[in-house]
Amino acid sequence: MTPPSPSTLLAQRLALAVPALLLGGAYVSQYGFGLPPCEMCWWQRYPHFAAVGLALLSTVAQPRRLWIALAAIAILVSGGIGAFHAGVEYGWWEGLTACSTVSLGGGDPLDAIMNAPLVRCDETPWSLMGISLAGWNFLISAVAGIAILLLLRRKA
């Protein structure tokens, strides 16, 4: 097995770090700052979970560049969902009509459901410089996914 090129190593590190950090930020906002996720927030997390798994797989399985490219695509998918979600939050188009709740567990299940916060996908619970969390996920994921794919295109 030949050692990977520096650009492939950087792509691999980005494919692992970016979704891991974005997931970490999502969980810090959820559990540290009390911002429960809506349904579309969860949808954005799933491709990041897949990207972390694919990036980890690229450290042990061949063809390494394929696994990294698939991780980059998963990151881009999450960014696309984030773009759609941000558009819903900003009122550019209609999103889901259903809302989700977060069960905090423990005690009576019916009581937990009845007292769980209602989380709407069309409301922005937090923003930085006018950009919601979904918007930041779109921006970061799009730049990272494209950067990873461009790094993989470089010759050794």
TrEMBL record:
GO biological process: protein folding
Source superkingdom: Bacteria
Annotated transmembrane regions: 68-88, 133-152
Mode of membrane association: Multi-pass membrane protein
Keywords: Membrane, Transmembrane, Transmembrane helix
Localization per Swiss-Prot or TrEMBL: Membrane
GO molecular function: protein-disulfide reductase activity
InterPro entries recorded: DiS_bond_form_DsbB/BdbC (IPR003752), DsbB-like_sf (IPR023380), Uncharacterised_DsbB (IPR024199)
Main location: membrane
Record-level GO cellular component terms: membrane
Pfam families according to UniProt: DsbB
Name the record gives this protein: Disulfide bond formation protein B
Source organism per UniProt: Tsuneonella aeria
